[in-house]
Design goal:
Layout: E1 5-10, E2 13-20, H1 21-38, E3 46-50, H2 64-75
Antiparallel strand pairs: 1-2, 1-3
Bound molecules: zinc ion (ZN).
Residues 52, 54-55, 58, 63, 65-66 line the site of zinc ion.
Length: 82
């Protein structure tokens, strides 16, 4: 079983990745806290979130590459089968 990977994101862009599991998630949040402490005005831009298991440096929720793939598949899902 593969541990969930977390990343630190700034404005939706991954700036730090490679945090695996709950223990590393704490490390990721500590890293983000240090960034926020350095730039309090940017606090809203930073977040720690799960990384897409299929695509590096993409958030699991809102992965652009997954969204594109699913959009293509959904188009004619009912055709040519059955
Ligand atoms: Zn993805």
């Amino acid at each position: 079983m593969v541990a969930v990977e977390y990343g630190v994101f700034e404005d939706g862009v991954c700036i730090e990745a490679g945090f695996h599991g709950e223990v590393d998630k704490v490390a990721a949040e500590a890293h983000m806290a240090a960034l926020v402490a350095a730039e309090p005005d940017m606090a809203d831009a930073y977040e720690v979130t799960e990384i897409c298991p299929d695509h590096e440096e993409q958030p699991k929720n809102g992965c652009e590459e997954c969204a594109e793939g699913e959009a293509d598949d959904a188009e004619d899902d009912d055709e040519g089968r059955g």
